[in-house]
Amino acid sequence: MGPHPAVAAIRLAVRRVLHDVLIDLSAQRTPEPHEARTERAPGHALVLVACSGGADSMALASALAFEAPKLGIRAGGITVDHGLQPGSDLRAAEVVARLTALGLDPVDSVVVSVGRDGGPEAAAREARYAALDAAAERHGAAAILLGHTRDDQAETVLLGLARGSGIRSLSGMAAVSGGLGAARRYRRPFLHLDRQTARKACMVQSLPVWDDPHNTDPAYTRSRLRHEGLPALEKALGKGVVEALARTAQLSRDDADALDAWAAEAEASVRDASGLLECAKLYALPPAVRRRILRRAAIAAGAPAGSLFARHIEEVDRLITGWRGQGAINLPGRVVAQRQGGRLVIRQG
Predict the structure, then answer these.
(1) Is 328 in a helix, a strand, or coil?
(2) Which segments are annotated as binding site for ATP?
(3) What region holds the tRNA(Ile)-lysidine/2-thiocytidine synthase N-terminal domain (predicted)?
């Protein structure tokens, strides 16, 4: 008799991602003449799971512990203590004990200091990913697995829609994304699985889980969306809203990736011999492509990507499409955009 369907589903999802990690590692190295070119060739690769102790990440940790040894991969774990709640250090110690009991090694607990920029959720996320990046570098990990589910993806799409920041926000979370100096560090095996599957997998395996009180705190936007917004949508529109939003994320990501590639190719054609952007050539491009070029140029000049919003790019875009002799546009990071003699100059002010 095979495993419970929920357990089988999470293990299959992790197995597929681990195969992808091995393929990536194989592509990055040249085997010695006596070695066979197989998926196992990289050997001893380390994959970490980021675990809060909640149902999603505990299910992910259990699946990694089960699948990794069969592929010759070392499995480890890391938990991040944000220090935002009383007893968070004890919670982190419990997670370390649970991951160790699953057979993961190494297992780390990292304490971070959460700032205030961008609000509490954004600040905690920034601190968390910085800690995960540092852990990956410290241990030489090939990848870090994250437990985001289809439900998380649906919430992310709705949050992006509310911000009105364009198709990239509607793309949600990527199945594969980068960290500092690693384009494919983060893997999200559960984006096609619902939250209930992960919780069920924990229950049938008798895995203890921790329910973060922040997930039910109405002070947090995502919590309100999860417990009020999505249920209201499902009541009004019927079941299947989460699946539809997740599907929208994938379709939007495909479109956004194509437009990003178009913009990258077109950028060289709209620059003059000195490297400045020519306004007439920019004007001739489709708006979606032109604004991507403007965003790339602003980031290259030093504007922080996380602080550069659609409204900033729209203001710069008006220097191209609605030129009335207006002055310079101030962007985050002390970057200034201005039109000079038919050229767009974006630089540090």
Answers:
(1) coil
(2) 52-57
(3) 47-228
